[in-house]
What we know:
2 copies of one chain form a homodimer.
Chain A: H1 2-25, H2 32-38, H3 45-50, H4 53-81, H5 88-100, H6 106-121, H7 126-147, H8 156-175, H9 177-184, H10 190-209
Chain A binds a DNA duplex (18 and 18 nucleotides) through residues 3-4, 6-7, 10, 31-33, 41-49, 52-53.
Amino acid sequence: MEAKGRDVLAKDRILDKAEELFAQNGYFAVSIRQITAAAECNLAAVNYHFGNKKNLYLEVFRLRWIPRARRIHDTFIGILGTKNEPSLRDILHSLATAFIEGPLTDDERERHHQLIARELAKPIGGLDIVASQIHQPFFNELSDLVKECLPEGQNEQELMLKLFSVFSMLTFFNFSRELVTIITNYQYDQAFKARLVNHIADSCSSGIAYK
Amino acid sequence: MEAKGRDVLAKDRILDKAEELFAQNGYFAVSIRQITAAAECNLAAVNYHFGNKKNLYLEVFRLRWIPRARRIHDTFIGILGTKNEPSLRDILHSLATAFIEGPLTDDERERHHQLIARELAKPIGGLDIVASQIHQPFFNELSDLVKECLPEGQNEQELMLKLFSVFSMLTFFNFSRELVTIITNYQYDQAFKARLVNHIADSCSSGIAYK
DNA sequence: GTCTATAGCAGGATAGAC
DNA sequence: GTCTATCCTGCTATAGAC
């Protein structure tokens, strides 16, 4: 039993460190040697547990990124559930809160967004997995929620663009922190995040409701 | 004179191919061998002309990215100059047009945004150069332009966030095309880009003017 | 300035002992 | 399952001929 217990732990340690390093530095900048050293296990362990480096990378998305995306989603649904007949702004505020102040630790959130940002810029396998399992269903769900707050007969195309705009802000403010900080000198402390959430909710709800 | 002429060309060819490859694949995924092969010159040419790989990468930003950002900026100012007393929407429409349908070819635009997207996710030297020479002054300029369309006494912090929101959309729709296409099935053809420009102008102007 | 050749090193992957 | 040792490939960078 000890042997089996250690296995699982070694595999998990590799996944954790691999995710951290891939997020920080990108797939090609990270070596198996770095990963196994950080995970305090043997060099051969990656090939033993995951076959090869590429599959380890994909498993990071399957076994770490997706479950975390589900936690954010569930947090969003949870916050939204506390409101009676939520307004458009309620929906967006819940969404922004889940994304920016949600269930993830700061480290987790940073990793989460860096991983997807890399895939958005240059997909090397993770985006396909994540788009079909998370983004596609989530956009549909969100679209249905938002439609209930809008007059009938919304243009579907237009609505999609609006949802992407929300998503663009959530993504940008989460993963371009460096630029935001360089330009404004604001640190991402609790006060600034709360301000961001309100800004996104306000600005997106007026953006979606226009016309 | 032929000799000197060839030098300049070789250096330029290296810069062009380096930019293309760095944009597509990221700094670490690209080798000097790939670059010199694509530029049809000798392996040693990179070290001769640029010292080392890292400096070649930075020169791509200094000699290629920044001049192109200036072209986009000048296009924006040019379009804006055709309007008398431009409204907020005029400003944003000109800006979105310059970014999404502007002076760059499709290839140039793709490279431009992929390069900066990578630096936003994980700066390795390019962002510092670009933020100080382009973003910082541009945000200030844009801020002044927008203020003329808004009532006095705008909150500076709030205005900065609003400008970042515009920037987030411009960036997202330019560099997350893969995701947009996966989810919506829209290709980035001329019609879709025009639609995007209008969407961004409408949605951002109502977002900025709210309250 | 350009090229060939190569030094010197780091990477992914695997074989085989334990 | 874990570990060591190692193969082989590909990389950056440079020395030195032309």
